[in-house]
Write a sequence for this structure.
C-alpha cells in the first residue's frame, strides 16, 4: 500500500528525521505528542480505465500537515517533506510511484493546541495493484 511506503520514506529520510525524529502519522497524531511532527491523509484518488480494462495506476491526492511550535520550524518541516517526496519515482512500499508533484500549500495556525501548521498537498501517481 502506498500509505505504508510513504510512512517508510518519510521516517527514513535523513533531513526530515533530523527535524522530527520519525514522528510521521497517518490521519491523526497521538495525544500529547512531542513536536514537531507530520500527519498525512489521502484526500481522494482517481483511477482511469479503458473499455473493459482496469488501469493499474491511480492518481491520489495526499495532504501532509507539518506541525511545530514555531512558524519557522513548521516551514522547515514542510520543506523537508517536499524534498523527500517531490519528483520521486520508483518502488514505495508495495506500490510503484510514477511521479509526485505539488498541488498546493497553505500556512495555518491551530489555536487550540497552539501549533503552527503548513499543509502541503501532493499528487502521487502510483500503482494500485496491491491495494
Amino acid at each position: 500500500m502506498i500509505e505504508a511506503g510513504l510512512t517508510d520514506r518519510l521516517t527514513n529520510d535523513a533531513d526530515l528525521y533530523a527535524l522530527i525524529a520519525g514522528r510521521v502519522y497517518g490521519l491523526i497524531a497521538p495525544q500529547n505528542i512531542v513536536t514537531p511532527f507530520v500527519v498525512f491523509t489521502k484526500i481522494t484518488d482517481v483511477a482511469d480505465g479503458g473499455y473493459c480494462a482496469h488501469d493499474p495506476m491511480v492518481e491520489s491526492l495526499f495532504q501532509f500537515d507539518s506541525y511545530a511550535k514555531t512558524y519557522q520550524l513548521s516551514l522547515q518541516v514542510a520543506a523537508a517533506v517536499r524534498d523527500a517526496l517531490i519528483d520521486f519515482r520508483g518502488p514505495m512500499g508495495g506500490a510503484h510511484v510514477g511521479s509526485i508533484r505539488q498541488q498546493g500549500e497553505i500556512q495555518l495556525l491551530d489555536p487550540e493546541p497552539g501549533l503552527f501548521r503548513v499543509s502541503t498537498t501532493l499528487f502521487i501517481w502510483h500503482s494500485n495493484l496491491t491495494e
